[in-house]
Specification:
- The protein is 27% helix and 27% strand.
- By secondary structure, the protein is an alpha/beta fold.
- Strands 3, 4, 5, 6, 7, 14 and 15 form a seven-stranded mixed β-sheet that branches. Strands 10-9-8-11-12-13 form a six-stranded parallel β-sheet, with helices on both faces. It has a two-stranded antiparallel sheet with strand order 1-2.
- The chain is globular, with a radius of gyration of 19 Å.
- The structure holds NADP nicotinamide-adenine-dinucleotide phosphate.
- Residues 40-42, 124, 128, 148-149, 151-155, 172-174, 192, 210-211, 215, 232-233, 251-253, 292, 295-297 line the site of NADP nicotinamide-adenine-dinucleotide phosphate.
- NADP nicotinamide-adenine-dinucleotide phosphate binds at residues 40-42, 124, 128, 148-149, 151-155, 172-174, 192, 210-211, 215, 232-233, 251-253, 292, 295-297.
């Protein structure tokens, strides 16, 4: 099968297009013929070696964290999924490839009304938005949420989910994304390049931080007492959380088919739509990663395979 692999940390030129063996799979695994995977910022952090302390990898390494495709074979203990099923999942590595083997607990059936490209674009955003909004925030109708980084791959799905859950949704993004984000459900869009959100927002129940850094540190002030600062980028300061009488939590979204299945009805009803910015070929993985690293991408960059 074809794959993208690297054997040293570095810039995108360490990514090599190779031919390698189709992976083996065990009794609890599903072998998927991959149709699409997407480029996530996590892949660049791993490629540059920044994640070795948190999620160590060994060389040679095939990157990738999400996948859609068709089931080729299943292990003897797999009953929910069968060969020929169209599926999607988020996972840990090995998806920039023609085939990948996945634990059955990760693999969800693709909703019938979306393409395999759209399914790949939804896997991580859905699992991450579910983890933050439903598991951690327990977002309630009428609550006010501020989502930083709303125009990106995760954010543009989180906006849709927050709206479905009945929240009042304020977002920060580039001005060029304001129209698209309003269509997705944002009630207010703040241009992070020219406006200071701390002067425009107050008393929010939840801050969803998809950006980190100074944006996160400045966010404590806009929360109401007892509010929640939830970040998928870096752990919030415990000191600032105490000072402002709020809670802070870093969320590492764990993949599971159950999270994707929970959201299926919203996809079938057209309430959550994939945000595909661009599709490229697997062979163009290095250029695709550079494109996402540069910023300004409206949603997901998807790599098509097979
Ligand atoms: N912990 C987890 O489980 C988990 C899961 C998924 C992702 N993540 C992390 O979450 C982050 C977002 O992921 P993603 O896939 O959505 O990335 P992405 O597609 O690259 O989107 C990032 C977005 O942030 C916007 N942005 C940059 N600086 C901003 C600022 N100061 N204020 C407001 N918006 C800003 C960018 O807009 P412009 O391009 O217009 O500047 C871009 O649309 C990444 O760091 C990723 O590694 C964590």
């Amino acid at each position: 099968m074809k794959a993208i692999q690297f054997t040293e940390f570095g810039h995108s030129d360490v990514l090599k297009f190779i031919e390698t063996d189709i992976p083996a799979f065990n009794e609890n695994e599903v072998l998927v013929k991959v149709s699409a995977t997407t480029v996530n910022p996590l892949e660049m952090k791993i490629r540059e070696g920044h994640f070795q302390k948190i999620m160590p990898i060994e060389f040679p390494y095939i990157p990738g964290a999400d996948v859609s495709g068709t089931v080729e074979s299943v292990g003897s203990q797999v009953t929910r999924i069968k060969p020929g099923d169209a599926v999607y999942a988020s996972t840990y590595g090995n998806t920039y490839a023609g085939y990948t083997s996945l634990n059955q607990e990760l693999v969800a059936l693709k909703p019938k009304n979306i393409t395999l490209v759209e399914a790949a674009a939804l896997a991580i955003p859905l699992a991450t938005s579910y983890s933050l909004l439903i598991e951690s925030a327990q977002l309630q109708p009428g609550q006010k949420i501020l989502i930083h980084g709303a125009s990106g791959g995760v954010g543009s799905v989180m906006v849709q989910m927050a709206k479905i859950l009945g929240a009042y949704v304020i977002v920060t993004a580039s001005a060029t994304d304001a129209g698209r984000l309003k269509l997705l459900g944002a009630d207010e869009v703040i241009d992070y390049k020219t406006q200071d959100f701390t002067q425009l927002v107050k008393d929010v129940d939840v801050v969803a931080d998809l950006v980190g850094g100074e944006t996160q540190n400045k966010s404590f002030v806009v929360l109401k007492t007892g509010g929640k600062l939830l970040s998928i980028v870096m752990p919030p300061s415990a000191e600032l959380a105490e000072k402002y009488n709020v809670s802070g939590e870093f969320i590492m979204a764990t993949p599971s088919y159950k999270k994707l299945a929970y959201c299926e009805q919203w996809i079938l009803e057209g309430k959550i739509k994939a945000q595909v910015a661009q599709t490229m070929k697997l062979e163009q993985a290095a250029a695709a990663q550079d494109l996402v690293s540069k910023g300004g991408v409206k949603g997901k960059v998807v790599l098509e395979i097979n």
